[in-house]
């Protein structure tokens, strides 16, 4: 009997969600986020990071988490798009938590990664780490899943509940807290055992792979995270989708493509080739979602340790008819997908995230945010050149969602609670 799903013979189906023997070390590494692990990952002085040297070769070394956010990078590798640009690549390295991925990138083990968008803000302006955003990994692709045992059908019913988020510096934490406040609720961060007021919602950091089993075991009431863990929560852990984040913030970014300053500034030809391959990967993922779902899955090229039906749901199941109670999709007229792939990093979205991050409850020292000039961040944190050149080269503006044909380099942020 499966301890999480209460269904016989389901343990093999949940192997990718929770495996004490295989996942013990990964869990410990990622759980450091709850105790300042991000700070520990970046504890070396900035000069020490500056003195670290990249290998002399120009091999593309990708680090990624097992989430669909990494699709553009993984598809580019699987389809040989890097090789088409004359680049050599190592097999992408699967990392099971944000803290160790940050550590690997900081130690220059990886020169191409995807991070939750607020993470580079923290790295560059709090820790002075030379990181650049060079594109978006995807748009949409996240949601808030509640346990069926809760009976919750709207945000206002989340009072007194426990919700897991993947990281304090995440789009998920920002959007969730905005939605809770809009419903008259107060986000708090406290020990799970401490009593909550009826209008309070307790937030906690939890590694994405642990969220579905925690929901099934009723250790939490809800979680907000990237795919395919929402799909896993629905299919395997007795969860139901309360709201897709892409139905709140239209075509929002979540994970972004990141590179080292040295590469972006000094290896211009190499950086352009890298982004050419990444943009091709994004285009392919957008136009072939079913094929890509199988490609990434356990039954395909095994980039993600999830079964194909879970990944397929995560990439394609966005039907109003499937999500009527609760009404997880309220803006079907927006024409967004469950996950989409537009790699251009719109300045307006960066500005929105930085402004809202200043109003978002997180743990740790956030002094650096107080005087952070948002307009400066928009220009300083992001390199727009390489991704724009690649978008032009492959005529991507006509192939990806969310582009204004009259002004493709700019857009208006649409956020409706």
UniProtKB/TrEMBL annotation:
<dbReference type="InterPro" id="IPR006311">
    <property type="entry name" value="TAT_signal"/>
</dbReference>
<keyword id="KW-0472">Membrane</keyword>
<protein>
    <recommendedName>
        <fullName>ABC transporter substrate-binding protein</fullName>
    </recommendedName>
</protein>
<dbReference type="GO" id="GO:0012505">
    <property type="term" value="C:endomembrane system"/>
</dbReference>
<dbReference type="InterPro" id="IPR044527">
    <property type="entry name" value="NrtA/CpmA_ABC-bd_dom"/>
</dbReference>
<keyword id="KW-1003">Cell membrane</keyword>
<keyword id="KW-0997">Cell inner membrane</keyword>
<dbReference type="Pfam" id="PF13379">
    <property type="entry name" value="NMT1_2"/>
</dbReference>
<comment type="similarity">
    <text>Belongs to the CmpA/NrtA family.</text>
</comment>
<keyword id="KW-0813">Transport</keyword>
């Amino acid at each position: 009997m499966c301890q999480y799903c209460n269904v016989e013979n389901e343990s093999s189906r949940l192997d990718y969600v929770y495996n004490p023997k295989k996942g013990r070390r990964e869990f410990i590494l990622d759980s450091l986020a709850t105790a300042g692990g991000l700070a520990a990952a970046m504890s070396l002085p900035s000069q020490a990071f500056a003195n670290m040297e990249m290998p002399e070769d120009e091999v593309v070394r990708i680090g990624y988490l097992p989430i669909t956010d990494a699709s553009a990078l993984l598809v580019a590798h699987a389809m040989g798009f890097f090789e088409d640009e004359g680049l050599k690549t190592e097999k992408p390295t699967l990392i099971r938590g944000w803290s160790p991925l940050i550590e690997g990138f900081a130690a220059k083990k990886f020169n191409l990664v995807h991070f939750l968008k607020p993470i580079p803000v923290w790295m560059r302006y709090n820790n002075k780490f030379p990181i650049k955003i060079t594109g978006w990994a995807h748009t949409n692709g996240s949601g808030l899943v509640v346990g069926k045992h809760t009976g919750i059908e709207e945000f206002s019913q989340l009072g007194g509940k426990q919700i897991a988020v993947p990281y304090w510096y995440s789009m998920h934490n920002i959007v969730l807290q905005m939605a809770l406040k809009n419903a008259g609720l107060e986000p708090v961060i406290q020990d799970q055992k401490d009593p909550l007021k009826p209008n309070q919602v307790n937030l906690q950091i939890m590694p994405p792979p642990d969220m579905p089993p925690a929901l099934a075991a009723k250790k939490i009431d809800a979680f907000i995270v990237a795919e395919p863990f929402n799909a896993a929560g629905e299919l395997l852990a007795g969860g139901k989708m309360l709201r897709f984040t892409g139905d709140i913030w239209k075509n929002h970014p979540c994970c972004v493509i990141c590179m080292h300053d040295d590469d972006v500034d000094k290896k211009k030809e190499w950086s352009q080739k890298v982004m050419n391959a990444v943009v091709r990967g994004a285009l392919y993922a957008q136009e072939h979602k079913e094929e890509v779902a199988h490609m990434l899955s356990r039954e395909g090229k095994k980039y993600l340790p999830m079964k194909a039906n879970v990944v397929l749901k995560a990439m394609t199941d966005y039907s109003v008819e499937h999500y009527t109670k609760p009404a997880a999709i309220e803006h079907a007229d927006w024409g967004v997908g469950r996950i989409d792939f537009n790699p251009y990093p719109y300045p307006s979205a960066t500005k929105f995230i930085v402004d809202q991050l200043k109003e978002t409850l997180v743990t740790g020292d956030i002094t650096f945010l107080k005087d952070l000039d948002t307009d400066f961040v928009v220009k300083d944190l992001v390199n727009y050149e390489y991704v724009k050149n690649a978008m032009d080269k492959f005529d991507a503006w006509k192939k990806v969602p969310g582009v204004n044909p009259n002004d493709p380099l700019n857009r208006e942020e649409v956020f409706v609670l």
